[in-house]
Every structure is written in structure tokens, then in C-alpha cells.
Amino acid sequence: MTSGLLDRHLSFIEALRGAGLSVSLAEDLDSVAALGAVGWGEREHVRDVLAATLVKKQAQRTTFDALFDVYFPALVGDGVRAGSTAEGGDEAAESADAPGVRDNAAALQAFRDQLAEALESNDQQRLRQLAAQMVGTFGAMPGRGPGLSSWSAYTALQRVAPQELIDRIVAGLLGEAGDEARETEVRRLANRRVGAFTTMVEDDARRRIAEEKGPDHVADVAIRPSIDKLAFTAARRTDLDEMRRQIFPLARRLATRLTKEHHAHRRGALDFRRTVRASIATGGVPLTTHHRPKRPHRTDLVVLCDVSGSVANFAQFTLLFVFALREVFQSMRAFTFIDHVHEVTEHLQPGSDPVEVLEKLAAASSHAALWGRTNYGRAFAKFEEQHLDALGPKTTLLILGDARSNYSDLEDATLRRLAGAVRRSYWLNPEPESSWGAGDSAARTYREIVSMVECRNLTQLQEFVHDLAL
Amino acid sequence: MTWFDSPAQAADRLTKAGYLADAATATTAFLAGALEKPLLLEGPAGVGKTELAKAVARATGAGLVRLQCYEGLDEARALYEWNYKKQLLRIQAQTGASDGVDWDQTHDDIFTEEFLLTRPLLTAIRRDEPTVLLIDEVDKTDIEVEGLLLEVLSDFQVTIPELGTVAATRRPYVVLTSNASRELSEAVKRRCLYLHLDYPDAQREREILQAQVPDLDDKIAEQLVATVGRLRELELKKAPSIAESVDWARTLIALEIRDLDEKAIAETLGAVLKHNSDQARAIKELRLVSTTSTTGRRK
């Protein structure tokens, strides 16, 4: 290994650690030994080898791939642009001197035509070239001050707007088959291809910035945390879909873990009769002891969740997650509120389809609002007035929300009465603890009544539900 | 002995053994042999984790020793156990025959090979022939068993207090599989190479189908793979895996269905989707004939 390569490898490991992967020295050594066995000949081999030795959690794989592309880029500079087509080659040579020249309306139109064609045929190689070309031509921001990135995936995507090509691609794909019934399917296919292309463009912009400023800078700024560590409030549309897909597997994993731990705690008092009976087989020596089973205690759960715009995602996830774990709880009732309370238990039938449940919940949220401004105090008062029968001495009350109540009357006395009527009560807050009580957040007031827990991502949510169900 | 010479050769030999490995799988399988490190396989059920271990054994002509993990697995089932019934008999036989034998003699006698019941881990370590040790569904065990595995996985040795340390004469090729129902401890993960097996792409899945179900004709294989691909995109409780595709292909052959049209899909959906709500969703999304689930049950 030459010294340059070693430096790069070490800073790559450093970046992985910075991104939250716990890479030990032993694993680092393994990776170098493994590279010695496989060789640096092929980039994909290197990626596989490093992944096998350094990444031990699938959730971290996306982070790893992004960092790998930054530290070990597939191409340098404009690389492929020169080799794309004969015509493109000439133009690339020209534009190398003055990158701004080619960015005009005609070039944009021509590029969009090429892109639509490539997306239609789904030629990966060509698409990757186009992504590099696109950032090079339309994403360049020359003449910006020092310290600012000179490439922008955002600008490039805004200029070219691949989303608008979807209709064209659909028409193109349907043209071959001429089948109207397949339209939704084809549209989904086109959407997926455009999505993949968008990712390629973002990757390419990252790569270019890394080239200019050094990979360490990009690793600090542009790499997103893995999905289970991503904050609910910072999630984008695609992240939300991904999270929703994660919910049921997560719930299943948690359920297995819970059963296992229940079993571990199940050993009750010694069952004397059975132990003596079993000891006869071994000549009166009690080699194995038998125990009476312990009665499992199960929680009655009442969930009260804020579904106003600011926390809607968080509320939906938590509700779905708790719902997915229904069998762990004795019974469950769920209420949504904004400034009025509405019961949604009926939508959470066992065995029902999670997508439909979410749709119904979204539709039901209109019942939870009178004026549409979050008002925790009013919601608590209404809850006490209409649904007090839901609470009992065995109940666990779970409140989900950011406690931002638009400076209205907090009704903390009502909440105190509610909390007093149940066995345990918790408040899950999707905001970081540091911002509790800032602005119109009533978290300070409420946390004195109900124990408030920070719950910003899937990992924290999972930990909380685990402790709740145990 | 080296297990594989290069990633390419690993892919080649695994293919001959009936396992179509992609590049990452082949590279990692090669590495596990070259570095003599255990290989931890994770992924959804039915993507061929256990099968990979079996294929490695077939491809290299090694013997397969399997430890199936389950809740409550302990040292006595995983590592070794003293055959205490036989030991009791021995003590009784000795006291019956002559009463002058001293205790030390008996003690030395009953803690020997003869009374040792070897369990998979110890068996794999003591074997002289090349061995693939498969530790299946390691996430099902309790955390304590992981501690037990550590000594075996890093040093390939087992310490038996009465006999001393048994070290491997020939390091086995160790494969651990996990459905990730529980996070394994860092200590175990650190000692392993990690590979996540996922659903294959359409091309590879078709090859796997054709290798597993040779009677399947090309057209129907293509339709089947496309349909399964679409099903995996839906939000299902359990997405169909390779095992289910293969089952489905066998079902279609058994029913002599030559064309996978909407009616055929609807009728045989039970082979791929095992949840009622999943089937309902698939019928809705694929716009199948909506009466299917009821007619299917009446048959």
C-alpha cells in the first residue's frame, strides 16, 4: 500500500466513525488484510471487501456507500463526458475552457431529450454519464466566494427538472405496448427511474465537491444519518416512505425480543412437587429444578396524540408502531387531537393493512380540529369531559406531541387529574431536549406532571416502546 | 487447505454446487476462507442464508456440522456434555465389583473421552477433515450463548476444565446466520465478516428459478419474476423471498398453468403471500379479480 492510499484509507475510516459507525481497530486491520487477499484491482471488489469487514449493520450500509463514493470516486473531474458520444466529446472539450457557455436554453432542451431517451431505455451506464454531465453543465456555480460549494445538485435538478419528463417517459414506454391498463404500473416504473437518476445526480455533485474541498469536508456536511437515526422532523418524503417500511419489521423484532425477555423473567417460585418428582429419575438428586410460571402482566394503553401539521409524521409513526405491537398490550385505545379530541381506535383493527390505516388516520385528523390551531389545554379538557371512562388504575397514558400550544391556556390542572387517574403516564416529544420550553413550547410545564421522554428517531422510539411493554 | 483461490473461482465453484452467488457474496465467501474468519449472514427469511453454507460445503467437499440455535440453547447442547448417566453406572459398577478402588482412580476414569458427549461446536473443532460449521439463526439464542461462541469464533478452541483446552487441528469455515430479530453483540460482530443477503435482481432471480425448477419455461419464469418484483414493491407484512418464488414456480408446474395471467396469479397467490391483509393488498394493487380470496378458500 502506498502512503497516499494508506492516508486515504485512514481518513475513510475516520469518516465512517464520524458518521456513527463503530469501526474498531481490529476491524480496520481485518479490512487491510482482506484487501491484501483480494487486491485493489477492481473498485466493486474493494467496496464489497470494505463493506464485509467494516459495516456490521445493514442500516449503516447507505452511509457507507455514500462515504465510499466520496473517498474512492469512480471517476475524476468530467471524466466520462469526453467519452460519451463523438459529438458530446467535442463540446465537452470546448466547454472545458468556459463551462458557463454551454448552459443555454438550446443545450438544456437537447439534454432533456437525451435524458428522456436514456430513462426510457433505462441504460444505467448512459444515465450515470448523463448525471455527471448534468452537474458539470447545469449545476456549476462558478465565481462563488471561497468556502462555498461550486457545484449544486439542487440547481441542476431545478434547471433540468427530470420530474417533468415522467409524462414523456410514460408515453414512450406505453407507445411500444400501447396498453392503457398498464399505465399506473408504467408510471410507477418511470417515477422510480427518475428517483434513481436524482440520487445519481446528488452523488455526482457530492463527488465533485469532495474533489474540490477534500472528502473530509463532504463527509461532515453532506452525508445523512442512517434511517434509524434520522430525526422524524428532518425526514424527507422518500425517507418517510422508507421509515414506514421499517415499522413492521422493527415491531416484529421488538415483539420477539419482548417475548424472549418475558420468558427470561418467567421463572417464578420453585415448584416443589414437580422438582421432587423429576429427581426420582436421577436417584433422588434434584439435578433440574422446576418453577411455577409467572403471571404475565399486560398494559392497558391509552394513546393521546397530537396530529397537527408540525408533528403529524411523528404521531403517525408512533401510532402505527404501537399498533403493530398490539398483541403485547392488553388493550389499546387511541385518540387524536389538535384542539378537539377524536377517537381513532376503530381504525386500528388487528390484521388490517398499514397503508389503509394511515390513510384513514389522515382522513380522521379533520375531526380532531375545530379551528385548526393546536391547543393542548382545550384538548385535555375535552378528553376529560368526553372520554374519562378510558382511564383506569391499570391504564398507561401515552401522550405524543411537541407541547407547542400556541400560548393558549395549558390546563395543567386537568392534565394532573388525568395523570393521577392512571398507573403510569408518559409524554413522547419529537423535539430535541435542548429546545423544550423554547418559544411556545409548554414542555417545561407539562414535564413536571408527566415524565417526558425525547423521541426523535426510530431507535429512540423502539427503546421507549420496549421499556413500556416490559 | 485453502477454501477458494479467488472471488471469481468462488463464484464459479458455488455455481457448480447449485448456488448462484452475486459478486458481493462470492467475494465475501472467498474472504471468509482466505482470512479464516467466521462469516455472519443477515437478511430476510428465505433468501438463501443457510443454503450458502451448504453450498460452500458442497463446493469444497467439506463436511457440514450444523448447530441450530433456539431459545434456551445452553453449553450442554452447543459445546459438550458429560454423560452423567454413564458415569453413574460406572461408579456403581466399580463399587459393586470391588470395594478397594480409590476415589482418584474412579475420578480419572469417569472424566475421559469415553464419557464425553461432543456437541456441534466441539465436533467441528475436533474434526480432522475440512469442515463447514453452520451456526443457524444465532439471533434466536440468549445473550449468554454469544459469550460461549466468542472463544470458539476467535481462537477456534474449547476449554474443558477436566480435559484441558482442545484446539482446532484444522480451522473450520464458520457461517453464522441471523434474521436480525435481535442485535448481536459488538464482540461477536467484530470477530466476523458481515454480509447482508437481500432479494436478488430480476436477472439473477430468473437464473435461480431456472436452476431450481428446471421444468419451468422461460416465458412463465419471466412473468413470475416480474410479478414477484412488483409484490416486493408493495408495502407488505412479509415480502415474498426466493424460497417463495421457487414454491410458486413449483405450484404452477403442479397445476400445469402455462400462462401467468391475472386469473392464475389470483388463484395461486397463497403460495407467495402468507398474510390475509397482504393478499388483499396485492389483489387491490395488481387489480386482480377481487373474488379470489373467497373462491380460493371454498375450493
From TrEMBL, chain A:
Record organism: Nocardioides immobilis
The protein, known as: VWA domain-containing protein
Stored PANTHER family: BLL5662 PROTEIN-RELATED, BLR6139 PROTEIN
Pfam families (alphabetical): VWA_CoxE
InterPro entries in UniProt: UCP010256, Uncharacterised_CoxE, vWFA_dom_sf
